[in-house]
Structures are given as structure tokens and as C-alpha cells.
Amino acid sequence: MSALLLLMAIVLDALLGEPRRFHPLVGFGRWAQFLEARLNRNALESTPFALRLRGVLALVIAVGPWVALIALAASAGHYMHYGVTVAALYFALGHQSLRQHALRVYEALASGNLEEARSRVGFMVSRDTGKMDAQAVAAATVESVLENGNDAVFGALFWFLIAGAPGVLLFRLANTLDAMWGYRTPRFLYFGWAAARSDDVLNFIPARLTALTYSLLGSTGNALRCWRLQAPAWDSPNAGPVMAAGAGALRLGLGGGAYYHGEWEERPPLGSGTPPDASSIQAALRLVRSGVMLWLVMVIATEVVLHA
Predict the structure, then answer these.
(1) pTM of the model
(2) Total domain count for the chain?
(3) Alpha-carbon torsion 41, 46, 50, 53, what sign?
(4) Residue partners of 278: CB distance under 8 A and separation at least 6
(5) What pLDDT is recorded for position 44?
(6) 258 and 127 in contact (C-beta within 8 Å)?
(7) Residue 255 φ/ψ region, left for φ over 0, alpha for ψ in the -120 to 50 degree band, beta for the rest
């Protein structure tokens, strides 16, 4: 049954994409902003311990009620369970949305419209895009596709298979809070600690499964070598393996320095191979799509074997 529910959610995401109105994550984001504004007051005057304590409280209040509610709903009979589970996975998946954003950058680059490409990639990354050349735009887009392949696709699939609707909701909400509060700025350095660490924990296994998926579907030897040698140099324990393996699988040279909030930040290299261009974006999207198909086939095959 997991395979059927998984397939239904994937099909819904492919057909409908991200909801344009009344997206639950948008509402959750407003709820998180409300909590942060009240619990993270006087961030520069409070002690690190107090801020971390408030961050833990904010995380529990932000996520706990919704996970408990969906767990209760999923236990209210078979049909309710199926409907809630498919809906939760559909809302958590961002495969089609990721594809749409990346293709807009690809189309702008392919047509030679660099200004439009810079604008479009700005919706996908947090780095400064105003002075990027075409290669930098392509690199940023490919990196975003690879990283979000884990955050918005394979991580959600993993937690769905492990813990159903409550698991996939917990993963997606924790990931959203990390994106909102996980910055190393004076305001969020300590308050966002709990959100960042919870996302690291929930993403630890999915990130490595994603890296393995990329490796199996691309240049395997190069991907595994890049994963082993380059991932430890990255600050993020999960983004490093995912992007290093993905870049290696695609035989692309990514990473390196970039501007963030007006300041140049040196970053370790990713992958090994040719510099990226517009076609590399399509290659990255194919890699993620092939990974989704591989996971679906493996889930179906596992259920067939278990029920044989």
C-alpha cells in the first residue's frame, strides 16, 4: 500500500505542482514568524543559553501541534489514513516546483537573456545574483537542484516510508524552520540552533541516501570519490555529501566562492569535470527525476517481495 500512496502523491505533484493559493507551508511560515517575533525578542541582550532555550520552545510549539494533529487524523480509519497520507506527502514534495524554477533559469540562459536568468536564479538561492556571469548562474542553479533534490524530494520520501504522514510532516516543517531560523547571524545564531540541529538530524540518513542515489545514476566512481574527499570540507554535514556526489555524478566542477549579502565567501570545490552551462541544469533535473523513479521501483519491488 505504501507504494500506491507514494505513486499517488508523486503523480499529484507532477500534475498539480505546488499549490498557488493556500499552501500549508505558507501558513506555517506565518505561524513561525509570529512565534519568532515573540520568543526571540532582545536577541542581542539575552544569554546564549536563554536564546537556545527559547529556540527549543519555539520549535516544539511551531511543529508539535501539527504533527500531533495529522497523526490523529491519519489514525481515524483506513480511508482517512490514505487521504491524509497522500495529502501530506503531496504538500511536502517539491519536485515539480523545483523543476519549474530551474527550467525558467535554463530557458533564460539558453535564449541569452542573462538578466532574466539572474533574476530567476535569485528565487532559488540565497547568494547575490546581480553580477553573476552565465557560468555562475548555471552553477548556482545546478547546486540548488542537487541540494533541494534531498530537501524537497528524497528526504520527504524517506520519512514517508519510515513514519508515514507524521514523519513526512515533521521533516518538512523542521526543514522549513531551518531555512527561516538557521542563519548564523546575531539574531538567529543561538535562537535558531534547535531548528538547525533538528534539520541536521532528520536529514542525516536521507542526505546520504540521496548522495548514493546520485552516485548510482551518474558517473559512479567520480561521484563516490568527490563525496569522500570534498564533503568533509563543507560546514553543512548534509549538503556536502549531496552536492559533492551530485556534481561528481554529473562530471561537473561546481562550488567555489560566491557573494552572500555583499560579502565574498570562499567555499570548497564540488565535483570534478567541465564547467557548467545551461545544459547542465537539464542534466541535474534528469538526475533527480531518475532518482525518484529508482526509489519508486525499489519500493514497489520491496512490497512485491514482502507480499509474495
Answers:
(1) 0.93
(2) 1
(3) positive
(4) 106, 109, 110, 134, 138
(5) 72
(6) yes
(7) left
Residue type, 133: D
Which residue matches cell numbers 516543517?
173
Using one digit for the tens of pLDDT, what is the confidence trace for 111-166?
999 999 999 999 999 888 888 999 999 999 999 999 999 999 999 999 999 999 99
pLDDT, tens digit, for every residue of 284-306? Answer: 999 999 999 999 999 999 988 88
The predicted structure's pLDDT at residue 17: 84
How is residue 102 written as a grid cell? Answer: 530551474
Helix (H, G, I), strand (E, B) or coil at 174: helix
Residue whose entry in the numeric block shows the C-alpha cell 545546478: 142
CA distances from 210 to 87, 157, 184 (A): 23, 11, 26
Calpha distance 134→112 (Å, rounded): 9
C-alpha distances out from residue 228 to 33, 249, 270, 271, Å? 38, 13, 11, 11
Work out the number of other CB atoms within 10 angstroms of the CB of residue 197.
17
* pLDDT < 70 regions, the chain: 1
| Closest by CA position to 199, among listed 179, 219, 222, 175 | 175
Give the closest residue to 149 by CA, choosing from 294, 4, 1. Answer: 294
Q: Which residues contact 79 (CB under 8 A, 6 or more apart)?
A: none
What pLDDT was estimated at residue 259? 77
Domain encompassing residue 72: 2-306
